[in-house]
Amino acid sequence: MLEGVLAGARALIAAVATDALQRPTPCPMFDVQALVEHMVSWLRMFDAGFAGRSGVDPKTLGPGPEPATDFADAAASVLRRWRAGGPQAMVALTGSPTPGPFVYRMMVGEYVVHGWDLAAATGQPLPFSAEHAEFALAALRDMLQPQYRGGAFGPEVGVPADAAAVDRLVAFTGRDPRWLPPGHAVER
Fold it and tell me: Which residues make Cβ contacts (< 8 Å) with residue 172, sequence separation at least 6?
């Protein structure tokens, strides 16, 4: 699951055009460039946590001139660490050590949601399956408590119960599944 999600996120990052970097995204905290930087730095943060390094500031882990390569390198390292004992690991992130399976679920949610943000902002097709979205939604329903709403996670947006899995996922995180970049009209 995680390998597919990270491969999809890397493909999205690799396809971002230079002229799209200043575009807004559905995540109110980030434009495209800041979102890409966040995606890379946090994957490096997850990798550091699985390596047992705590107290690492994700702001110091941002990408260099090739963010897709940086993301791919961090993804390979995270996957290697996961396979070498991640399910039994206690992962040091920003606070108390967290069980590896919880962090795994957090990463899937992080990269499916922010991948959707990036795809929506840059007009790319979403590289994630309904299974990825369902897994991420179940994970985030367990993790995203009301006190964590605000900033990147707004109030849940209403969607029909039979909406697509990815629409239910992004709506749960406070994003409107019909979001379009400013200036783009909906075709009818």
Answer: 137, 140, 141, 144, 156
